[in-house]
Amino acid sequence: MTDEPFGRYTPSDLSFDDRGLIPAIIQVASTGEVVMLGYMNEESLRRTLALGQAVFWSRSREELWHKGATSGDYLDVVEVLADCDQDTLVVKVELAGRGVCHTGARSDFLEADDATPRRVVACR
Ligand SMILES: [Zn+2]
User: Do 53 and 47 contact (CB within 8 A), yes or no?
Assistant: First the structure.
């Protein structure tokens, strides 16, 4: 299989951590929003590239996780970028459904109404 048009690295070129994982920052291609951080192993990355939809490794369930398979909220992959030391991915996607969060929100990263640089806002 060819990895075109997904960039110059094949999954086996990448640097996975000692659990076999690589962090994948999920960014909406059309808006630039960072909506999620997931983890991929080599198998999930290969499936992502083959499907054109994001497939993660679920660290809590310890299984492949095709995002949207149960909710319909698939992430359609536009391109996959590796950083300069090949240990982090930016996966540019378009949202096929509502978003990425289990709350139904578009993003896992909630924006506060009163943003301040010394406060953390979370999606619970
Ligand atoms: Zn969330």
Answer: no
Ranges under pLDDT 70 in the chain: 1-8, 124
Cα separation of 29 and 116, whole Å? 26
Give me ligand 1 centre to Cα 59, in Å.
15
> Tell me, what's the pLDDT at 1?
46
Exposed / middle / buried, residue 116 (Cβ in 10 Å: 0-12, 13-18, 19+): exposed
What is the whole-number distance in angstroms between the Cα of residue 37 and the centre of ligand 1?
10
Compute the distance from residue 2 Cα to the ligand 1 centre, in Å: 33
CATH architecture of 11-95: Roll (3.10)
How far are the Cα atoms of 5, 69, 73, 79 from residue 93, in angstroms, in the given order? Answer: 14, 16, 12, 7
Q: What is the pLDDT of residues 51-65, one digit of tens each?
A: 999 999 999 999 999
